Amino acid sequence: MSGRPKPDTSTTRRVVVHAAASRLLLLTLTVLWRSLSNPYDTSASINPPCLSHSNQSSDARDPWFPRIGSAIERGIVWDSVYFVRIAQCGYEYEQAFAFLPLLPASLFLLSKSVFAPLVPAIGFRATLALSGYVLNNVAFVLAAVYFYRVSVLILDDSAAALRVSVLFCFNPASIFYSSLYSESLYALFTFGGLYYMISGADFVAILMFALSGSARSNGVLNAGYFCFRAMHRTFWRKRFGFAVKATIIVAVQALCIAAPFGVFQYYGYYNFCRHNSSGKLRPWCKFRIPILYDYIQSHYWGVGFLRYFQLKQLPNFVLASPILSLAVCSIVQYAKLRPGILFSLGFRALNEEKDIAAVFYSLGTEHRSQHVRLPQETHISEVLEGNHMLRHRKHNKKEVDSDTNQGPKPLDEEVHLTGKHGFYSILVLPFILHMGFMAAVAFFIMHVQVATRFLSASPPIYWFISYLIASTDSTSRKWAYLIWVYFAAYVLIGSLLFSNFYPFT
């Protein structure tokens, strides 16, 4: 029997090719749509001088190729305007603090280093934009590779892992991963953090999760994976001393992941509350917990529980309905396949699945319960096979006792042991819980149309689609085909609308 599955080098190259091809397709579509139609709103080109300081020295002379610079700057639309403005002038306005610093800081550093020679040629603002395009597209390719690696470990199937990676490369929010948005950096550091966490490199995983929280606020939720793991370690070990130790460790891990976001909030508090020269405090400065991000989302964008439930927003609910439906369907399907696992949060796992879960939770020998003694490189299939004979020995007794059962067996007792991999696996559970929380937030609290890109980095969506594609059921395969049509339609429509400053998500 082979060892634990590892990402195949040749397949990794195929993932890179698909990811690069998808970015080239988006670039081609963007250029095509811009040449065929006029932008709905041209206000994005307005770029007044910085308030507190000026980078005019970078643009002291007219660029050598103004038309090229102008063409690049036309791609600065929607939230891209904020990211580029912050990179150029810093955080001037209160509402700018809704955009976390990782992307604008990266744009500034790249434009002052690697891309600095381009400033005289195309101008500083165009250089900022170009550095962002290059950064995000490279980050997307790396994110696809990490997603493939995570999927290999979770699904225990290289072919399925390749399939889900291709799906991610052409996801319905693809245009945002090639634009001046933070989605690519968030996906890169989220998938990278998951890979290193599963591999047992906790320090690297914490660092990458912290960076994901510096790109998007929902990156802080990645601390939940460590919390979930700590709960299961404590449950299986069943020792008070170990529980105290695990609680302290996971608290430190969660604080490290949330630290960049917390420091950024304090930076805003210091600027507007502690270092306020006007003498008039902003309302949020007087809150018991003065978190600027929450105030901005509520005050400037109207984000709040059920605040978006208005008749005029019905088109936006329709726009978000496909991705939300996929999220709900994947959760429902997992609940049907593994009800005992889902509704017990994994604490009712079968004995052999505790061993399987130990692979995901990276339990060293000293952390395993007394009856779990897996070699470090044990393959999930070996665990399954090792328990297969015991399963058969118990089978006859279960048939004899079946008449005394009080009700039908849970579905996860009926699923054959060797089928508990892929989308059936207990290893999918924490991802399902994470996605379920994000989907609820997107539907009830956020601007619902943002759900398309908000959930685009949720692995269970792609694992579920792969499950449908691989199914022998004709109905499932038809649904998989329709999902592919939806992906293709949103890639085409999204690149058209977004690049020409029309509302999309």
TrEMBL record:
One of its GO terms (biological process) is GPI anchor biosynthetic process. It is a multi-pass membrane protein. The chain crosses the membrane at residues 15-33, 128-148, 160-180, 186-211, 242-267, 317-335, 423-445, 451-469, 481-502. One of its GO terms (cellular component) is endoplasmic reticulum membrane. Its EC number is 2.4.1.-. Keywords: Endoplasmic reticulum, Glycosyltransferase, GPI-anchor biosynthesis, Membrane, Transferase, Transmembrane, Transmembrane helix. The keyword Magnesium does not apply. The keyword Acetylation does not apply. It is found in: Endoplasmic reticulum membrane. Pfam families: Mannosyl_trans2 (PF04188). InterPro entries: PIG-V/Gpi18 (IPR007315). GO terms for molecular function: alpha-1,6-mannosyltransferase activity; GPI mannosyltransferase activity. Pathway: Glycolipid biosynthesis; glycosylphosphatidylinositol-anchor biosynthesis. Belongs to the PIGV family. Mannosyltransferase involved in glycosylphosphatidylinositol-anchor biosynthesis. This is GPI mannosyltransferase 2. It comes from Acorus calamus (Sweet flag).
